[in-house]
Amino acid sequence: MASIPTRREAAERYANLPQVRRWRDGNYEPGAWFNSDPESPESPWGNWGREFKPTRRGITTVDLNRAFDDVPDQGAGLVVDRGGGADAGATRWEYPLNQRYEVWAYNLESLLEEAISRQWSATSDLPWDKLEPLPDDQERAMCQFLSFLHPVEFTPTDILPHYMMRVDPSFPEVRQFMATQCADESRHMEAFGKRMFANGGGPGIEPTAEALLSMSADTLSSALKPEDHPDVIGPTNPRATWEFLGMSYSVQMMGEAVVLDFFRFGEFLGRNPCDKEMFRRVLQDEARHVSFGTMRIKYYLDHAPAEERERALEMLHYFASVDEATASGFGLLINPNVIEPFALMAAGSTGELDKGWDMVREFWAGCVEEYLARCDRAGFPRRDKCLIPREAPF
Ligand SMILES: [Fe+2]
Ligand SMILES: [Fe+2]
Fold it and tell me: Contact, 203 vs 147, CB < 8 A?
């Protein structure tokens, strides 16, 4: 380990920096940020003189991007907002995700705007005073169900930042949307945690969801190892792009979509205004995450160069087959610590369990159909390929 510099050595380093020396000499001439002529083609001030008038709504990203119309096909590789420039000779950084088609989504700006305007507080926006005591079996079922949903929220917050930092800063909306998703998931975790304690139940049994715990950027990366799947992934393919697509498929379009279906049913089954409102709010957020993943894959498939698109489709179908066959997303529906409490909530009481399980079977069929419709929308139809049983296997 290198030795720690002394205070004196550190002070010398500061003092010897070129700009510090210049300032110490009394030279305060500002740099290109001030001196360059915005009219010259080399000027970093790409947008100087352009003005945007707020609308009645204020300044929305939708309106701003419509007015400026300057989202480039390729990122600039600079750590500056779109339209900005750099000092002469500044490093251009090679962000692994630097093409618009690799990161953009059709409804990105409006999803972002919605995400920002619909942030809510698990502390004060849920009608906690309207939470009512439930029969013991129902409270236990609800808390066990929430014990599963609580760690589910870790999955996107663990994985998304890995991709956020790889997106070229010319596309800040993509990073911002993923940041709002992380904030959403954190709030969901908070709401579920508070709900578990609010009615005398508390966290139950770990849902033994190996799939959840093992899901990470590393897993996605190794699932796409070119040497393992030479027919699908070639060594010249942009790995980050495949992985990011794989993430949008398995996390946002598959896993979170199943969770969204759970939330919808949770709202339907909620026995008091507080439980209903909690599920209503989380499902609104969750729908955005699923929509982003789906519309991002569609944007990619519509805009990638033809050959890359063909290989991406192969990869997505391969990835989907593995996911479907190993019950990755749908594993949640055959996990006893998840689906048993869910069936009991659907039943309404232990005496009606048969009825509850019938509803779970309907739920299964509905989830598969939703999933297939989503694949259609994203542009990689799976109806004749899907390996998930259309009917519940129980
Ligand atoms: Fe969530
Ligand atoms: Fe989510």
Answer: yes
Q: Is there a contact between 154 and 81 (Cβ–Cβ < 8 Å)?
A: no
Rounded Cα distance, 2 and 365, in Å: 61
Report every protein residue that has its C-beta within 5 angstroms of ion ligand 1. Answer: 153, 185, 188
Q: How far is the CA of 31 from the centre of ligand 2 (A)?
A: 44
Ligand 1 center from residue 52 Cα (angstroms):
35
Cα–Cα distance measured from residue 32 to residue 50, given in angstroms and rounded to the nearest whole number = 19
DSSP state of 3: P
Placement of tokens 């663990």 in the chain: 158
Give the ligand whose atoms come closest to the C-alpha of residue 160: 2
The amino acid at residue 96 is: P
**Domain 101-378 class, CATH top level:** mainly alpha
Alpha-helix residue ranges (DSSP H) falling in the chain: 7-16, 18-24, 32-35, 61-68, 100-103, 108-117, 136-152, 154-164, 172-198, 210-214, 217-223, 239-247, 256-269, 273-303, 306-325, 336-347, 353-378
Tell me the ligand closest to 291's alpha carbon: 2
For the chain, which residues make up each domain, given as ranges? Answer: 101-378
Distance from the CA of 188 to the center of ligand 2, in angstroms? Answer: 9
> pLDDT 10s digit of each residue in the chain, 394 long?
889 999 999 999 999 999 999 999 999 999 989 998 888 877 888 888 889 999 999 999 999 999 988 899 999 999 999 989 998 899 999 999 999 999 999 999 999 999 999 999 999 999 999 999 999 999 999 999 999 999 999 889 989 999 999 999 999 999 999 999 999 999 999 999 999 999 999 999 988 656 555 555 666 666 666 566 656 655 555 678 888 998 999 899 999 999 999 999 999 999 999 999 999 999 999 999 999 999 999 999 999 999 889 988 988 998 899 888 877 778 888 899 999 999 999 999 999 999 999 999 999 999 999 999 999 999 999 999 999 999 999 9
Contact 143, 340 (CB under 8 A): no
Q: What is the DSSP string of 29-72?
A: ---HHHHS-TTSTT-S-TTTT-----BTTB--HHHHHHHH----
Give residue 84 CA to ligand 2 midpoint distance, Å. 32
CB atoms within 5 A of ion ligand 2 belong to 256, 286, 289
